Amino acid sequence: MKKAAGINAAACAMFVCALCLLAFNNTGHAAHIRKVTLQRLYVDGEMSEEVSIKEANTVKEIVKQYDGWQLVLKNDKELVFQKHINDISPLMKVNGYFGITNDGTLSIFNGKPIEEDVSQSFFQIDVERLETKKHNELVRGIRVKNKEQYEEVLGGF
Predict the structure, then answer these.
(1) Which residues fall within 8 angstroms of residue 93, CB to CB, at 6 or more apart?
(2) What digits encode the pLDDT tens for the residues 126-146?
(3) Are 135 and 126 in contact (CB under 8 A)?
(4) pTM above 0.85, yes or no
């Protein structure tokens, strides 16, 4: 057999056949193959994504699999679903701290505020009017482990 651009012609033919098998289901109709992205939106503003490839006879079948999710994007290649999670993100639970930046902005840090890795900023605080104890807590960092604590600290400032 003749080689084209370094690829065996028989291998090319097998590849094309494999693509055809993927594109058509056993009824002879085109299968719907889509990239499916699941986006989880947390109360702390973080978002996580999970991506997979799904195949079904109809797009409706794929959508049915994600009851409770909101379809926010649908095109020929991709479906994107979102869900609002009434909790703080897993990253926040593991390494989140409330703190204050040098300009007095209440922020969430990934790690202690001394590391200066701000993940979200809220508003400026009048540091002059802040209790010394509260100011020192923010400078050191206030650990956030759950949604209740997150809302309590945010509401307190």
Answers:
(1) 144, 145, 146
(2) 667 777 888 888 888 899 989
(3) no
(4) no
